[in-house]
Design a protein that fits this description.
Its EC number is 2.1.3.2. The chain is an alpha/beta fold. It contains eleven helices and nine strands. Strand 1, helix 2 and strand 2 form a beta-alpha-beta unit. Helix 1 packs across helix 5, helix 1 packs across helix 11 and helix 5 packs across helix 6. N-carbamoyl-L-aspartate binds next to helix 2 and helix 6.
Length: 319
Amino acid sequence: MAFRQKHLLGIEPLHPDEITTVLDVAERYVDLNRQANKHSDALKGLTQINMFFENSTRTQSSFELAGKRLGADVMNMAMQASSIKKGETLIDTALTLNAMHPDLLVVRHPHSGAVDLLAQKVNCAVLNAGDGKHEHPTQALLDALTIRRAKGRLHRLNIAICGDIAHSRVARSNLMLLGKMENRVRLVGPPTLVPQQFKEFGCEIYDDMAEGLKDVDVVMMLRLQKERMDGGFIPSEREYFYRYGLDADKLAHAKPDAIVMHPGPMNRGVEIDGTIADDINRSVIQEQVEMGVAVRMAAMDLLARNLKSAREADAGVMV
Ligand code: NCD
């Protein structure tokens, strides 16, 4: 099985074969999740702790459900962003939790790099559920699975990621994953929200939706991350919707069978027209949520296997 990671901190360190392995394992969990009995023993006896220092609906609930379906003991820690300070507090929290012998730690934190730091302090597998503007690896993996199932492949596709790229960990993880799998990624949005340095990732940049969406296979919309903006990045939401909000007219520039994606939470009438979001012939937004549970099951299953092997190897050395 080609998955050698101890933690899932980002897409950046993953080899394309490891991405394919996660998606293949996730496919099996998609089937399981559609059965009446959704249980497996992959994480039986293991303890999973979810620490969300930032709000979450989909990600937290799907990690919880994923752990429970795989038989882990799952604990959700109630974390309020306001009560947390970076540095010692985070490390102290990590050390406290570590003393309780968790096997899997799922962490979301408002600071980029905080989850990597935490992973260095604990001896269990750490999964990044989103760190600041940095990475959100399980989101990119669930998006990849959704695309692969809808398009029948995950290479040589034209994919437009649109909107607030600058503040989006979803965009960063996605463009790295899609690039590794040899797709062509375009970033579309106002120059204030699409920094030119993203060209380093090998993507093309557009500030016009009609041009940016021309003949693409996938249109991925992003929320305006107002909580990460310090200052005015857009003139008004009304004008933003007029120029960059996905509606039927703008979508008409994409391929006739192009799919529409959004990681949620979505702001109807800001980055996307409600009728497009609800169009079952184009929108795969609900499938993304379904794939989210399966991908998180796969990621935790694979990390738990590696953890078990590492512990067995350590025990062997001690004998
Ligand atoms: C995203 C996030 O939190 O980064 N949401 C998610 O995980 N589904 C995107 C967002 O908040 O806009």
